[in-house]
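Cross-check.
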Amino acid sequence: MLRSTMARTKNPRIRSMLIERAAHMLRMREPVTLRALVAGTDVSTMAVYTYFDGVDGLWKALRQEGFTRLAAKLAMVETTADPVRDQVALGAAYLRNALENPDLYRVMFDANFELEDAAAADETLHRLVHAVERAKAEGRFRSDVNPLELATQAWTVGHGLATLVTSGPLPRETLAYGMPMLTALFVAAGDDPEQCRRSVESGWDVLVDRS
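Predicted model, tokenized:
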């Protein structure tokens, strides 16, 4: 009776717990069965249907939760008078999110699973595009720079580093390679080399946990 009651009340902690367990099982290459998912918890297999309408809904929720946490992390990045710094700070926040949520990060970009809200996921990239548009408007980047293309290139740098570090082949120190890579990318887009270096260093500081 306790189990069924907990499932019906839709406690958000149970939903979050099931998502975390499923993501961890995927990362560990364990088969995600209903029984395995709830093993050792105080909920029944029916919780998966109560919270996600079944296994397919769980997969969608896994991807969406990854982008939800990413959006929250990006929203914490302060907007300053330096658009290039802000662009890098968003990239650093992206990396922090990957390091803090490695299981969900692995699932976020698995196109085999649909998203509950694709537009919300796309908005995370649009924040990078907006930063490029600001840099163009303020003369930091050339007028012929395509904001979507440059934002995608910057995202590719961050995604590549995050994937290599969170999946294990490379140590966390490898993330520092992002600074010269982004500096070269933005200088090629028209930014002044010295000013760009300072902006990149300032934005990259977001990656450092000072708590």
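The two ends are 43 Å apart (CA to CA). The chain has two domains: 2-53, 63-207. Passed to J.P. for a second look.
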